[in-house]
Specification:
Layout lengths: L3 E6 L10 H20 L3 E8 L4 H10 L3 H19 L5 E4 L3 H16 L3 E11 L4 E2 L5 E4 L8 E2 L16 E5 L7 E10 L5 H9 L6 H12 L5 E2 L1 E2 L16 E2 L1 H19 L6 H5 L4 E6 L5 H15 L14 E3 L2 E2 L10 H7 L2 H10 L7 E3 L1 H30 L12 H22 L3 H22 L1 H7 L1 H22 L4 H10 L9 E9 L2 E9 L31 H11 L5
Parallel strand pairs: 1-2, 1-13, 2-3, 14-16
Antiparallel strand pairs: 3-18, 4-5, 4-9, 6-7, 6-8, 9-10, 11-12, 14-15, 17-18
Helix pairs in contact: 2-3, 4-7, 5-6, 6-9, 7-9, 11-12, 12-14, 12-16, 12-18, 13-14, 13-16, 14-16, 15-16, 16-17
The structure holds one RNA strand.
Length: 583
Amino acid sequence: MSDKVLVCVAWPYADGPLHLGHITGAMLPPDILARYMRLLGKDVVMVSGSDTHGTPITVRAELEGVKPIEIVERYHNNMLDSLVGLGLAYDLYTHTNTENHKAVTQDMFLTLLDKGYIFLDSMTQFYCDHCQRYLADRFVEGTCPHCDYDNARGDQCDHCGRPLDALELKLPRCRFCGATPHPQETEHYFLDLTKFSEPLHEWLKDKPHWRSNVLNFARGLLESGLRPRAITRDIDWGVPVPVEGFEHKVIYVWFDAVIGYLSATIEWAQLQGKEERWRDFWQSEDCQSYYFMGKDNIWFHTIIWPAMLLGYGDLNLPYDVPANENLNLEGRTFSKSRNWAIFVPDLLERYDPDPVRYVLTATMPEAQDSDFTWRDFVRRNNDELVATYGNLVHRVLTFAYRRFDGQVPQPGRLEAADHQLLDAMTRAFVDVGREIGACHFRAGLSAAMAAAAEVNRYLDVAAPWKTIKSNPQAAATSIYVALRAIDSLKTLFLPFLPKSSQALHEMLGYKGTIIGRQWIEEISEDGVKHRVVRYDGSKNVGEWAPSHLPVGQKLRDPKPLFVKLEDEVIEQEVARLKGGGGH
RNA sequence: UGCGGGGUGGAGCAGCGGCAGCUCGUUGGGCUCAUAACCCAAAGGUCCUAGGUUCGAAUCCUAGCCCCGCUACCA
């Protein structure tokens, strides 16, 4: 395995707050992986940011009568708080409207242009004279040429389901003003994907560690044949096309957003004061890069971005693209527009981050769509997290604290059962680690829970609450072994539940951090300020290894790691959803 | 239309050629250190349907039914 790991997280679009779909689909899995890799001692960088360009932002800005930058800043800042609140430890979370990103994007564009992978061509698009803009297919409405439905969108007819080209629509009208747009020729730059068909095919040949849904999808795309794809747009919000005469056009958001992985690593290196450090993660053969996203983005990360990297040259291609399927909410697709969503800022007002992380990991849509329900949230919190792990920690710590003078007791000679438990903990590091390393996060969490159940069984047999009366030495040994076991659980659960692991670390009497430090920082770029999330794990004292809890260490007054939720929560939250709560 | 994923005890999932397994729930028992938590045991399954391959199929093949997503100008 490589010493360096680059963890890339899909860039959420800054047109609304983060919701659970973003978190479980794209943002939580990489955090689990990155935290695990850091514990292993790997050199890890995890980057992402807000995608701040594109038509929907400009449309929203117009509706509200504000400038695009205001929309972007509102939601970008909102996201920063959510990320820190959830404990998602990005080494850098930035955004796409920075000078650095603009420079890197334009360099990528010009290099691909020089090398002949980008060409100029003209195309016909609807233009609305009233709105004075070209209309993307989805912003044109009209009558479906197939079924005569009179409210079809230009990209697809909602009635017959057929994909459309807006130019085919009968009686086209502008979705914003209702005026009749007219076809007009415009010039755009195209990424010539046909040139990458063969190399991409070669690259995808040997990917046995990839998820089959991702690999099949990517191979299917290749087999159906790649076409050149327009990568510029006729709007004024985005990275300008760096070609004379084309400054009024911008680079298409997805061409621009994927470059963010590279530009953010460069920005991170600059912030570290080691400008060339980004090369360790992009040009060293000793680095593996992971890309996390929902399945709707597989296309951009297995075809377009690798093509761009191949075209640019001397940059590493993705090592793995463990895309997730979709998370539904109470049986229905998340929908921001229909207000059917659970937004993170709202959620964090009422719940701690770790129960949320626990439930989202346990129901993570790794191989198929899954469903978030409030009933399930309460059930998993109470019957799994609190019952098996939280209660275990509490029963061991309170017993030790009260009966052994608030410190780790001196054990007697360890018996077979004691060794068996400690060996099981050692094996758990192998099991949980193997699953996380393979991006099987549900299985990893489940293996950690199995380890916690093992400790509960041990206690039941050892019964220190009995032996303390008849044979205090035996009780001391059992509690010592159990304390070491939960000290190991602290590490096993850390990638999933960082804040409670830190809390347990402290209750066990340790000092220092095992989860690093996260903060929001305002950065000045040639006098222009922007806000980012940063992370510093350099002072971490944790490692992916079983406990070496010292005998005699002073414990701190134990508090429950997690709280039980009342059943009423289910009704209240469902009512909040239906009432359009959240936002 | 094409493509991808899925249909397994009450719920959610794993297994993908060799006695059908996990978590939760249910029932019975144990324990009483612990957040009525913990531990043990039991009940509960035509593995979507119909054909086929095989000594043997939930697992492979064929046909069909149903659910979800994508289909390249939302990201």
